[in-house]
Amino acid sequence: MKFDLTILMYIIPSVIMFCCGVYGFITRKNMIAILISLELMLNAVDINFVVFNRYLFPGQMEGMMFSLFAIAIAAGETALAIAIVINVYRVVKNVDIRELTKMKF
Amino acid sequence: MDYSQFLMMPQEIGLLIVFLLVFLFDTFMPKRLQTSLSYITCVLFAVYTAVSMICPLKGMAFAGMFESTAATFVMKQILNIGMLIVLIQSIKWANEDFTIVRRGEFYELLLVTLFGMYLMISARHFLLFVIGLESASLPLAALVAFDKKRYESHEAAAKYMFTAMFSSAIFMMGLSFVYGIAGSLYFNDIAFKVAGTPSALLIVALAFVISGVGFKLSLVPFHLWTADVYQGAPTAVTSYLSVISKGAAAYAFLIIMVQTFGAVYSQVWEWMLYALIILTITLGNLFAIRQRNLKRFLAFSSISQAGYIMLGVIAANEIGMASLMYYVLVYIFSNLAAFGVISAIENKTGRVGMDDYNGLYHTNPKLAFTMMLAMFSLGGIPPFAGFFSKFFIFMGAVKTGEVAIYILVLIALINTIISLYYYLLVVKAMFIVEGDCVVPRIKSETSERLGMTICTLGIILIGPASCIYTFLTLVVKDGSSMFCFIQ
Lengths: 105, 487
Prior knowledge:
heterodimer; A: mainly alpha; Helix Hairpins; B: globular
């Protein structure tokens, strides 16, 4: 398989997006910001699927379908994660991830 | 569309019916009848398990996305047995004052996660697999947060949720690379496309896929959530997480690695898995030694057990697959026995520390005896089932005949000895350590006793009953064509 320039123009931003997501997941202290970083990672995956499908395998729709499902799954994950963050906020009155240190090692 | 292909998934449909009945009962029954919800769920699930034994269907559905073979059927039944024990053991907990209003949700979420695991086991297309993986892990996050009054439960849920999302993002990134290489997401199509010299992209993709599933299995570099979640979650949920969720993920992992990436076995992923197994078994054991909380202790023990289960994957042959299923079956009984004792004591006294178990034999001889059997089985002491499962899984790995695998098995053996040390620490605390016993004499509920009896019988009988392992080897023969890609 060879990558031509057009596909690289899409893949490089998506990989940068993914790396930004990983960086944000590791460094952010606010739980909502962590969720945003995770969302960046998931969206980078969607871009990848759509681009591979459009430029490498234009005869089929598998990648498009996958990214549709991935969007739905990401929405469900975010909803649940926000519910959990709200629960945590009710207990510690804070959304700082550094507060969650009762259980260690 | 041909609707008759839904008949290819009888177990899924049966589980769905159980789920709907439980849901309707929970929603529409008058208050006074609802007290029997837990019993009705158990009975419904037991009936469903028994009925689905009758008709193992084989075949494909949805253009090959979903496959039902003898092996998937048996694996699902193994999970059903574990689920049934979890349901029986959680009756007491579900009927306590603070859970009773929400226990309908507990059962519904539990059944939904099991449905997701069925999909993971039977999926032969990555889209279906991802849907199964997510519907198995998202409701579990809600279940971990179930104890609304306890702070630890929320902390555990937050940690579980974030790591689960992170891992699924990494997993799907790997899948997108696989799609870029192969142009298809069917396991079989990918298997043909990845043969030959592996490209750099494939190696990255495989690393991503392995780490994504490794999070679910809590293999070592990705294990950091495990201990916290196990400690924070309600004990019923912890026992479910540690056996059922792990068993399903292990089987699905085997299918993915063998059927999809079998062609690059020796070139790429054998060595990735090799490193993971050594790290998992060793670090899991070493961290287990210093734990004083029994739930955390079992978390680290389950990490190292996951390493042993992975030996069945690295073997990549029929014996490995059969012994993986056997290991999961035995592990269900031994671990659930330990969790049964822990939850029986926790429900009455709220204590989970190892020091609280000092002299338990003097006050609760039966509980102490069950716990001892569970620890012996987990550690692999001969007459009990745990010894046989370890023996078979080592045998499957050795069958590959490579020197490197012999060394791996040797390392695993040495680790078994280390693990005996900390399993026997619990036994020593219960039987030998003198001192005033913190736990008073407990009269455990009938349901808890029933669950523990089933587990004890399983631990004692599964080992000598060699027909079970023979049966599993026969079952695996049916789908053995998937090993043809291994090279």
